[in-house]
Design goal:
Elements (H helix, E strand, L loop, with lengths): L1 H28 L5 H11 L6 H19 L7 H28 L2 H39 L18 E3 L4 E7 L7 E5 L5 H12 L3 E7 L2 E2 L5 E3 L5 H17 L3 H10 L6 H26 L6 H30 L3 H17 L9 H7 L12 H11 L3 H9 L4 H7 L2
Parallel strand pairs: 1-6
Antiparallel strand pairs: 2-3, 2-4, 5-6
Length: 416
């Protein structure tokens, strides 16, 4: 058995090295035709760029230390530890709001008490964080294993890539779209520490290049190892995001994910492939998240609040889909200014009824329109993948089928 596992490991490593060599060659040899645009864009974002390599150099030693010395750590009540962490997360959000109000009203006594409580909670979260990451990672692995999902290279019970995430504030992403159509042509990671004034300045300067720009906060990032998952989200969102970012790493070793990598790096743009990749990762991660949450945290659920949120979101979803259809119609007729005026008018309307969107433009729809569970999504690909999932004998069968696809036509042909 040891010999078989060793052989499997060697085969996996050879395939990783081969794939890595291809990627490096493509990245080094790739040359976009719009070098002047890229030069100007890079000169704007360079002071704010998030360096993944530098972050990895700091993160990997910490993760190695956690793996070496945290494996034998015994936690008596894992569920309570996780719930305490996420309860503290929600409380810190409330405290920050109260502190902002106290500052505005110059309420010094209240401010001192609130800041003291916030500091205590933040320290407690730091103490719990490594344990929470380890517990949730194991719970997700167990759920994946129960579904027969182990690794993308060989049909053996060896988990790969290793599921590992860090609860931190992820970098921002600058999304760039042409003005005459909705398509993400550049996505650049920016420092998580940038403030609103810097965000607005970067967007304005990029807009001057004749494109549509938007800087978005993301919930996770799978381009790093460990993956980023935001440390400000709810428990169920965290489980889902950690699973989804792992799935992106899993899929990149399959045809669908590799083609998505080429799209993401600008070497071979394919919006349908990007949509398929993001959507299948979303479908699978949602199912795994529900399994984990139901098994370990169902008593922690706040059903009434969730139902109310879903009802509010359904109204927003309908409104956003109608906006997207109208914008597409304007752009198809070459009426760019009219489309932009319409988006701003609808943004102001949404704000007047309680839905705040900082900026609504082509880049907004280019980013959010890739995800089938987003209100900006209008592509039939989401429905097609849901149909395929309903026809699949298992979650593993669904994932394997889609992961092997190289075009949307493959998806259409696979639906009975």
């Amino acid at each position: 058995m040891v010999g078989k596992e060793k052989t499997a490991f060697i085969v996996i490593m050879k395939q990783i090295i081969f794939l890595g060599t291809i990627i490096v060659c493509l990245l080094v040899g790739g040359c976009t035709p719009s070098q002047d645009f890229d030069y100007k864009l890079n000169s704007i974002v360079r002071p704010y760029h998030f360096g993944i390599t530098r972050w990895e150099l700091g993160a990997i030693p910490h993760e190695l230390n956690k793996w070496l010395f945290g494996r034998s750590e015994k936690i008596d009540d894992e569920i309570s530890v996780v719930i305490e962490f996420f309860t503290a997360t929600e409380r810190t959000k409330t405290l920050r709001s109260k502190i902002a109000i106290a500052y505005a009203n110059n309420e010094k006594n209240d401010l001192s008490v609130l800041e003291g409580e916030l500091k205590t909670l933040q320290e407690r979260r730091r103490v719990l964080q490594d344990s929470v990451e380890k517990i949730v990672e194991r719970q997700i692995r167990e759920a994946l294993n129960e579904q027969g999902i182990f690794n993308p290279l060989l049909d053996i019970r060896v988990n790969f890539p290793p599921l590992n995430f860090a609860l931190e504030k992820p970098p921002y992403v600058l999304v760039v779209s042409p003005r005459d159509r909705i398509e993400s042509i550049r996505e650049i990671t920016l420092q998580p520490s940038i403030v609103l004034e810097e965000i607005q300045d970067i967007e304005a300067r990029v807009d001057e290049l004749g494109v549509s720009a938007l800087i978005v906060a993301i919930g996770g990032l799978g381009a790093t190892y460990p993956t980023f998952v935001t440390n400000e989200a709810s428990l169920q969102y965290t489980i889902e995001a950690a699973t989804e970012e792992w799935l992106h790493q899993y899929l990149v070793l399959k045809p669908l994910g590799f083609l998505y990598l080429l799209d993401a790096t600008g070497l071979s743009r394919n919006y349908e492939i990007a949509t398929m990749n993001e959507t299948v990762a979303g479908i699978v991660s949602k199912e795994i998240s529900n399994i984990v949450y139901e098994k370990y945290y169902s008593e922690y659920d706040n059903g009434a609040s969730q139902n109310q949120t879903e009802e509010l979101e359904s109204d927003f979803d309908r409104e956003m889909r109608e906006i997207r259809k109208t914008v597409d119609a304007y752009l198809a007729e070459g009426e760019i200014e009219q489309a932009e005026e319409f988006m701003e008018e609808r943004r102001q309307y949404l704000e007047s009824i309680g839905y705040h969107i900082r900026k609504l433009n082509q880049a907004y729809f280019a980013f959010h329109g890739t995800y089938a569970d987003e209100p900006a999504f209008i592509s039939p690909i989401g429905l097609e993948l849901q149909e395929l999932r309903s026809q699949s004998s298992s979650l593993k069968d669904f994932l394997n089928t889609v992961a092997a696809m190289t075009s949307r036509q493959d998806l259409i042909d696979s639906i009975r």
